[in-house]
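Lab notebook page, bench 4
Experiment: in silico fold of construct C2
Operator: M.H.
Input chain length: 335 residues
Purpose: comparison with the prior construct
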Amino acid sequence: MAVSALRAAAPCAREEAVAHAAATARRVLDNVCRVVRGKRPQLELAVAAVASGGHVLLEDVPGTAKTVLARALARSVRGATLARIQCTPDLQPTDVTGLAVFDQRSREFVFRPGPVFANVLLVDEINRALPKTQSALLEAMSEGQVTIDGTTHPLPAPFFVLATHNPVEHEGTFPLPEAQLDRFLLRLSLGYPDPETELDILDDHGRGQPLDRIEPVVGLEDLEQLAEAVLAVHMDELLRRWIVDLVHATRRLEIVELSASVRATLALDRVVRAVALLDERDYVVPADVERAFEPVVLHRLLFSPAFVAQTAELGREDVYRRFWECCLGVAPRPA
């Protein structure tokens, strides 16, 4: 059922469609939770990004299941192709997109597609690639296509990029430009598991590689229906206005040097609806906006040097809490 038809359908029909889509998302979530233990809130946001048709930046230290998450998501979808790019400083743009090679038999140039032609593309340690190689992903991430030698090649649908980024190690790395960061629907950090969860992980690996036990639970066509259902989730006009006001608040605060773009507004709208759907609701509540704001908006901003200096000794959560309070001062929570 198309999005316009879903929105125009009777409330009971829309609720049924959303409930079916929520069950689809839950199957993927439960499947991934079998191998990535103790991180269900973060995994819900990752699945919300997949449901929204967006890309995810996994920013964390090594060994926190970033790659496992990407592979588990791909294995959960029947018929989905997974490709992996291990980024290094000598990686060239054509190693990502592919290139035209001369075929001596036909005496013509033949296009050989690169790893970007997959449903799920895992870009490991993206900040180790040169800026020109990172930029090879821009067209693919925003338009679902690549242009080689003047010819445009569409990518398979759906197309998701899950990129990993080590924020601690800086030697031999190249910071992601703002334009690249803006293409990611949201940024997640899994963090270390608690001791009890780590014991469960030991037990899992004692029985073999957990990823080998992952079976597909949905098909590619289910993801298309899921994306349609996300857009059909109802959002009150007050909440739509609040989303716009919150993004505009980043443009009015003196502590923000580079504010959020219109792409951030669109991303926040999609993720908020997906979060509501994962909670098995066909409508959005203010708590959905509050939950999605940090992972969707924060990586798109640059704070002023004065604010960075003031919060240098604070943890990431405390910095965000102070920033969120500033945003609420400009765009209060709707009554």
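Observations: The mean pLDDT is 89. The domain at 233-335 is CATH 1.10.8.80 (Helicase, Ruva Protein; domain 3).
Next step: discuss at group meeting.
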